[in-house]
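Can anyone check this?
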Amino acid sequence: MKERGKQMRKILWLAVSGVMVLSLVLAACGPAAPTAPAAPTTPTAPTTPAAPTTPATQVEQKTQQEAEKPVAEAPKYGGILNLTVAGEVQNWSQILGIRTGPWGFPLIDDDLLIGDWAKGPAGTGETTWRSSGYDRQSFKTGLLAESWEFTGPDTVIFNIRKGARFALNPASEASRLVGGREVTADDVVFSLKLVTTNTQAYIYRTGPSLRNTEITAPDKYTVKVKVSDPSAMALAMTRLGNGAHTVAREVWDKYGDKVAWKWTQHVGEGPFMVTDYVPASIGTFKRNPNWFMKDPVGPGKGNQLPYLEGIRVLIVPDISTQQAAFRTGKLDWIEATKEPALNFLKQQPKLKMVSWPDEPYNIAGPMYEKPYSDVRVRRALQLALDYDTIIQSLFGGERALPGWPIQPLDQYMGAYLPIEEAPASVQELFSYNPEKAKQLLKEAGYPSGFKAELRFRNAARDLEMAEVAAHYWSKIGVEVTLKPYEAGVWSALSRWEKLAGGFAVVGAGSPPGLFYAMQNFRGDQESGNYSLIGWNASTQKWDITDSVIEEAFKKTQEALADRSDKGFLAASAIHKELMKYVLDQVYVIQGPTYFSYMVWWPWLKNYHGEFAMGYVDRRNFVSFVWIDQELKKSMGY
């Protein structure tokens, strides 16, 4: 936070030599607002920003030490992978609650499908598997379902893997109840019906179009999924194929929803078993010796997975403490922002590192009310932002514009519109033109500007974006009141309330893999969209329908009726062309994109910077990597 404060002051003095005055008001339901950095008594001389870089159109920015593909080595079993997280487990399964299991690590459960490790850097290199939100069907392979086939526009058949078994942990009463039995189609059907009908389930809440899905088991190893409308099939493959874990019926009958909320009552079929969990301290996971998965590629092809003996996840809220633990070798892998990541490399050049464009921090307002309903006002607000100065000063020069509605990631470049291919009117939006911004406000009937309330989650990045926007908008007469909310209150506000009366820092939006659903800017929420501040803030009142977008959405669904890669590429092209219109409407005020970094010690082998193979399966690389314990020891750790 201290370092961010320095950067914030730097950007403000880069932009102007005057003093910024912000009105920071507490929300009635929020905590004390963070204090805005005070202006120095004597302004430091502004430095000249570096020349703007070319907007990123590639998969990710190159870093000082991009991970090169290592010489393949024969994997070795054993070793403990040490990781860290900032907070407690929110739930232990994707059955209920949020969409991921413990900390987003798919450790103890399996999806029906998974991203194909063999198509990433460990194999053919067709994708990087960096970032998250991947959902390209041709890049997936079977996991709990050995294979799948479409038997009609509204029907898919999942062939459940014979011999897949629930993990057997003799120390767990719940696990002993199941006895390590085989997973059957009945288990899968029960679980899929649960997530599409239970009002607590993430999939029920976020996918209304899946609530009437017909799910049956024609035999012991076959699951038939028939959606109520063919246009919901793509979403079904995402939510059900790659976002719904399987629970044993007898465990649910005995423990109910505790299988999701209590670790001692959870029984999975994944690569690891949870053996202990100490709140605010550590989670311990042990290798499941009966996992069915084999290494698909490389010198270890055909080997039983996982290679690791276990995983320890330390719960460390303080980022500086996390970084100290990594620096001293107590952690094997860490996610970081640019500055600490580069510092790690300076101190230990043998470390490996990759980065990718992660989350843009945008600002959205309720487009159904004035002044935001006037596109001239929205254009003015974006033209008032000095992207070059912001990116150079606050984002370390890393540039990925536009970063909304999807980021430039390898599998989705066909759906992404690079700024240099955009119409002139869109390119103009990413230039700094406060004079034109003032003129547009005048034309819209606001010659002296207007007052606005900007809401945001009380967190460092959100505060940064709010302060930057308020500063620049003050220069065109828009007087901003900043209104922070404690994280829990913000979550409730962003999911269930409208944005009437103000606008907000909204975060990234929906994952690139859901580009076809157009959740960020469509108004027809009952189509399966889920209106979050982080997704479709511009249409939260659910009464805005844009005929251009609706026509493109229809064509996209028609293209996706072809379930092959041909349909995916056709839908991508439609989305890319649509962006020429959508970006011009300024449905959100685009902020710069944060880049995420992954840094790891060289003893973490068979790892090349992968982050997520699939839509929600973040960090599932843990199933494929191994620890070179001899190398670790030789390095003094």
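Reply from J.R.: I decoded it. The longest strand covers residues 352-360.
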